[in-house]
Design brief:
Distance between the termini: 79 Å
Number of domains: 3
Radius of gyration: 28 Å
Number of strands: 4
Strand content: 5-15%
Order of helices and strands: HHEEEEHHHH
Largest sheet: 2 strands, antiparallel
Mean pLDDT: 86
Low-confidence stretches: none
Bound molecules: zinc ion
Helix content: 25-40%
Strand order of the largest sheet: 1-2
Shape: flat
Oligomer: single chain
Length: 192
C-alpha cells in the first residue's frame, strides 16, 4: 500500500504515515493543535484470509453446487444452493453464491456493492427549469410532489442534504403555481 503523507493544517508538519498511527493521533506532534483524524476504514482493516474449501471425505456429506468434490458449508441465502467455503461470499451478514451476488449487483439490490445513486433532488430542480417557460406550472408542481413522495426514503447523497434540497425544489414549483393561480384569479375578477 503506498503511503500518503498528511500534513498538519496549522504548521504543515508531516504527520505519521501509517493509518493506525494517524487514527490514534490526538494532537499535532509539532504544534500540539488538537486533531481528529478519521482514516478510511479500509486503511486500518486487516485483510481477512480466504478459507480453503475442504474436500468431501465421507459419504452423506453435502457437496458444493459449483464444486462436486468440495464440502458444502452453507446454503446461499438467496437461491438456497449449497456452497463450499470458496463459493460462499459473505456480504452485509448474508451468505451468497457468486451468481446471486452478480444478479443482485445487476439489479442494484446489494447496498454493500452500491457504486452510484440517483440525486432525486437534482431531478426535482431540473424539472423546475420548466417553470422558466411559465407554462404548465401546476403540472411541474404535481410532478415534483410525486417525485418527492416516491423518492423521499430512497438513499440519497452522502454529502449533500438531499431531502432539504428536494423539499425546497418542490416548494418552489408549488409556490409559483399558487402565485400564478392568484394572479389569474385577480386578472379575471378585474375583467368582470
Ligand atoms: Zn501542527
Ligand atoms: Zn445463490
Ligand atoms: Zn464451491
Amino acid at each position: 500500500m503506498s503511503a500518503i503523507t498528511s500534513r498538519c493544517p496549522s504548521c504543515r508538519r508531516p504527520l505519521p504515515e501509517s493509518a493506525q498511527d494517524l487514527a490514534a493521533l490526538q494532537a499535532c506532534p509539532g504544534c500540539a493543535r488538537p486533531l481528529e483524524i478519521q482514516p478510511f476504514p479500509g486503511l486500518t482493516r486487516i485483510p481477512a484470509a480466504g478459507r480453503p474449501a475442504e474436500s468431501i471425505t465421507g459419504e452423506g456429506e453435502a457437496a458444493c453446487f459449483f464444486h462436486a468434490t468440495k464440502k458444502a458449508v452453507v446454503p446461499c441465502d438467496d437461491c438456497g444452493r449449497f456452497l463450499c467455503a470458496l463459493c460462499d461470499i459473505e456480504l452485509d451478514g448474508r451468505h451468497l453464491c457468486p451468481s446471486c451476488l452478480q444478479a443482485g449487483q445487476a439489479r442494484g439490490e446489494l447496498p454493500g456493492l452500491e457504486r452510484s445513486r440517483t440525486r432525486w433532488d437534482l431531478v426535482v430542480w431540473f424539472v423546475n427549469l420548466g417553470l422558466l417557460t411559465c407554462i404548465g406550472a401546476p403540472i411541474i408542481a404535481i410532478l415534483n410532489i410525486v417525485i418527492t413522495s416516491l423518492c423521499w426514503n430512497k438513499p440519497g447523497s452522502r454529502t449533500a442534504n438531499h431531502r432539504t434540497s428536494m423539499l425546497l425544489g418542490t416548494l418552489v414549483s408549488v409556490g409559483i403555481t399558487v402565485i400564478l393561480a392568484i394572479a389569474v384569479a385577480f386578472a379575471l375578477s378585474k375583467e368582470d
